[in-house]
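Structure, all four chains, one model.
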Amino acid sequence: MVNVGILGATGMVGQRFIELLADHPKFEITALTASARSAGKRYEDAATWYLDSPIPESVKDITVVDTDPKEAKDVDIVFSALPADTAAIVEPKFAKSCIVASNASAMRMEPDVPLVIPEVNPEHLDLVEIQQKNRGWDGFIVTNPNCSTIALTLTLKPLYDQYNIKRVYVSTMQAVSGAGYNGVPSMAIVDNLVPFIGGEEEKMESETLHLLGEFDGESVVPAPFGLSASCHRVAVVNGHTEAVFIEMEDDLEIEDVKNCLCNFKGLPQKLDLHSAPKNPVVIREEENRPQPRMDRNTDNGMAVTVGRLRKDAAFDNSLRYVLVGHNTIRGAAGASILNAELISEIM
Amino acid sequence: MVNVGILGATGMVGQRFIELLADHPKFEITALTASARSAGKRYEDAATWYLDSPIPESVKDITVVDTDPKEAKDVDIVFSALPADTAAIVEPKFAKSCIVASNASAMRMEPDVPLVIPEVNPEHLDLVEIQQKNRGWDGFIVTNPNCSTIALTLTLKPLYDQYNIKRVYVSTMQAVSGAGYNGVPSMAIVDNLVPFIGGEEEKMESETLHLLGEFDGESVVPAPFGLSASCHRVAVVNGHTEAVFIEMEDDLEIEDVKNCLCNFKGLPQKLDLHSAPKNPVVIREEENRPQPRMDRNTDNGMAVTVGRLRKDAAFDNSLRYVLVGHNTIRGAAGASILNAELISEIM
Amino acid sequence: MVNVGILGATGMVGQRFIELLADHPKFEITALTASARSAGKRYEDAATWYLDSPIPESVKDITVVDTDPKEAKDVDIVFSALPADTAAIVEPKFAKSCIVASNASAMRMEPDVPLVIPEVNPEHLDLVEIQQKNRGWDGFIVTNPNCSTIALTLTLKPLYDQYNIKRVYVSTMQAVSGAGYNGVPSMAIVDNLVPFIGGEEEKMESETLHLLGEFDGESVVPAPFGLSASCHRVAVVNGHTEAVFIEMEDDLEIEDVKNCLCNFKGLPQKLDLHSAPKNPVVIREEENRPQPRMDRNTDNGMAVTVGRLRKDAAFDNSLRYVLVGHNTIRGAAGASILNAELISEIM
Amino acid sequence: MVNVGILGATGMVGQRFIELLADHPKFEITALTASARSAGKRYEDAATWYLDSPIPESVKDITVVDTDPKEAKDVDIVFSALPADTAAIVEPKFAKSCIVASNASAMRMEPDVPLVIPEVNPEHLDLVEIQQKNRGWDGFIVTNPNCSTIALTLTLKPLYDQYNIKRVYVSTMQAVSGAGYNGVPSMAIVDNLVPFIGGEEEKMESETLHLLGEFDGESVVPAPFGLSASCHRVAVVNGHTEAVFIEMEDDLEIEDVKNCLCNFKGLPQKLDLHSAPKNPVVIREEENRPQPRMDRNTDNGMAVTVGRLRKDAAFDNSLRYVLVGHNTIRGAAGASILNAELISEIM
């Protein structure tokens, strides 16, 4: 078993890490960190448990420590659920000696930090060597993208491999859990929606092209198409829904696109990693799917569900679809864990 | 006072007609029709009143009659809130002698039936003459578009007049009231959304281009750009939200676009029609507006609110914005009433 | 394995039966019935699957048959998820040769039909002999109570055994799934609640006292205290919440009440029945629990969670608490299955 | 016109004060106070406007000042929407020279501070004389009760006058606006409810009996019956719903109770005060009313709507009903304003 720690273990994504790692066959939670206010307490006393599943017995009695490598010792991998500003300061400290699999946005776009979805761009992990050399670290940081980016990119990857994508428009309907437990007041969401999520559109636009970009041995050259996002918060607890419009350079047939998405397998599927979904993309044929409450948990929340796949009558070489992905599993904690599983297997 | 009737007066849109007409300075409700089950009853007994405002005293005692011109007599204008299939049969009967201002979709795309938003294409009313000649009617039918089309088109019209629109993508988040009181089960919408509304995308795509099209004296030639829609139902009672992406042929400045939208006035504003909003399009500068619960009632629900007006970083000559419009006022009953007010004034 | 059928298998409770029975160690689904419209179709084609978990592979290809003992043959037990009116006609036909474990309300208050919660009144199953004699059946009908009754009665039973209950007031906040998929329109529940559920208060008041009543060898004598219910529907998908006020004849200590509830075990726990929760009643100490989304799935949805257990400052000998129970698992399909498991074990 | 100030003018209740006072015939807003962070700014720049109605033009340019009598000068009445801790410090300072009509809970149960609902206990205003004498103030403080208390007590008052109330149980389903804009996270309320509101049950229990109590010339003697409350937060924006169970000493007829509630008029109705509803209590006969979205705005949000009035089958001399009242209008800002209108008229 590999000893792992969770940085920022009391928040919403921290709790997902705990839930997903509690029965993990290779990783054993041996350290939980949080802010000074929680340090020294039993985890059960420090955290208000937000998830619908019960708090795992195995973590209840772990003593929470400060988010500091001197406190969270004897771990090989740390998973980071820290807010961006804290992550920027603390993750580099851990990376001196540990593998940091981070869900935070702080280091994602650093040129020598791999931003990885295992099914999409595992080869970007080659950046680790550059990172270690640049920074003189024995460990390293690997990041996963933003929740809405991951779901989108998992569906774009097989298409990008087979077609010449010209432009993508995406409009999201995102779950409130994405903002943390206290992030969205109920006054803002009952009989309402909020058509703005700070920084989200910029992240989707830059991260997606970066993920699909090519690592040329020194840095990542973003994919050469245009992507425009409009991001909105709706009254859904978990599960981001995205309406996607794509224009290709050439003609396409819907059946081919469907097969392309259905048959998509990446390295995690080939390596049969513990958290890998059988199929990263699942197609639903019903006219009114995917729906977040019905489809977010597909394959333990690690698969993205695509439906309403149809040609775009208005434009040549174009298609439209709707996708749903679980934002705190596939889009956050599960993404970091799959990164760590891949690293454990191949590095 | 002009005597008016309401066809399908017990449903959700029928009730909005009643609410909006109860204190109208020129129109007086003298007939209310419904299905055979309700005919013969007092309106208050026939209808389950769904609106938040109380049922107007003036209609409580009106006896509901069958939806038949022989029963609903002595009216000059009838407002139709009928379902499409009934409308197709009944509206032509009324049009023999009456003006039919219809919210139903049945006749909208008939070549000789004007589909009109008074601020957008009042000149399409010239089709009436052709319609009456074709069909031998003394009255005529005028229709208004689908709820989501109206809100979108009100914002596209001033842009279309000033810029060369190349393509439009729109993704909607629509209120449950658009499906009627029983249309969307709560099981489908609590902690969920439904990414499909039957026929809605097709209506948005065809009606919008028709409304912006040119009447050449014989028929309407649709506007020559592409428009693609993806339509979704969310947990909002009233007020449709739409994320709009537009590519123009040429460069644009956001300030110019803003002025173009703000300063837009149409014939209803010039004629100072009773139900005309002061400005058909209202701009909000806050980063998180428009929101349906906050903005749907702007100018009595007759104005469309636009926010998040911004350039599209990914594409040249492109802009994005979010709009909110009240789907059963500006998008349904209020639209038919404004059509009737315009007709009363100019024909 | 015992062959079982599900009557009314396509509705919401029918689907819960399928979900809960799909991997059952003793019961094997061999027949699924529905209305004539569905008969002859594969189950997957006949049903619109409403649950968040995927439709079990094992039932997809079962051919749905009419709800008639001639069609649903070779079954030892049938679970009934029929509407009350159909149940009244069809269940007696099945009872001629089968055990009918029914969730329908039709036969619940028949004097010779046991209304049973296995933890509460298993001895009422002795009515079966009288029923078979009265009606000349080889099989029999056993029913479970209404969803909100079950949750309440599971908490009242241990108290009733230890204290002299004088009066109970209960105010419910019930999930929309209790009315079936199409039962509650979203217009009725978004930014709203409905303070009425047809027949619910009467069922709670009569069934609870019947369940706690004594079987005197011939019939059931209801428990001798008063119970008053007020029932309301709120915007929750699954999980009924109930605020309970109880006055006892004598003084009480909260710690004793807590122990009484915590330590409660019934026959299903002693027999270790497959669907029996470890503890029928689980106590939460947090000041803001139980909450339906967080607590409905406790012990696979078969335990009732109680919180806010406190004395009533206004009245002597009084206490108050709030409970949450899963309405379509413990309150419906799971209740019938536990009844059948008990019968299989002891009869 | 009387010059009035609003203390805590940027919060949710502060905004309701502004909305309700903007067109008031006797009160003119001349001062708005907020925390130091907002002081010095134009009101429009200082406040994030939360209400569905637009921010009144007349207040946009008022400069917000510190909540201090030296800053908010030349006002005769101040309305307090302050949090309890601030109110405890600041309201006495204002009361040296002003009338303070407070919605804060800080001073409500002070023996010499009148806690008043104008229809219920206007005679408690006689405490003012004692207060001024005790404290040496030229002004004074008058308070209104908690939101859920006001709605309940308005329905209890006419019953208390006509019957001997023995005991009352009340279970509430309260709107999220009652906790302020940021009070309830959406994670806590989507597909969920929270069965706890800090301090609410205690307030309902003590304030209601105090309001119905008798002022004996020196202090208020609470009404001599028992009242027990259980308070819950549900997914409703505005409008508290309460299920009420009452046991009387003697027999009752539902028709008499209905008449008693319907015909109830208080001093505000007799004096025809500007904000007084025509009837403080409105009865709905439909089996599924009152509902918060439909009934909260009855008589501009100042009337309480009662429905489901029925005998309690389980208990003698007992009745049950459900009520809805607007929590931030009748239950907060409107309550303080009605107090001030009464004081202006009679003192």
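The radius of gyration of chain A is 20 Å.
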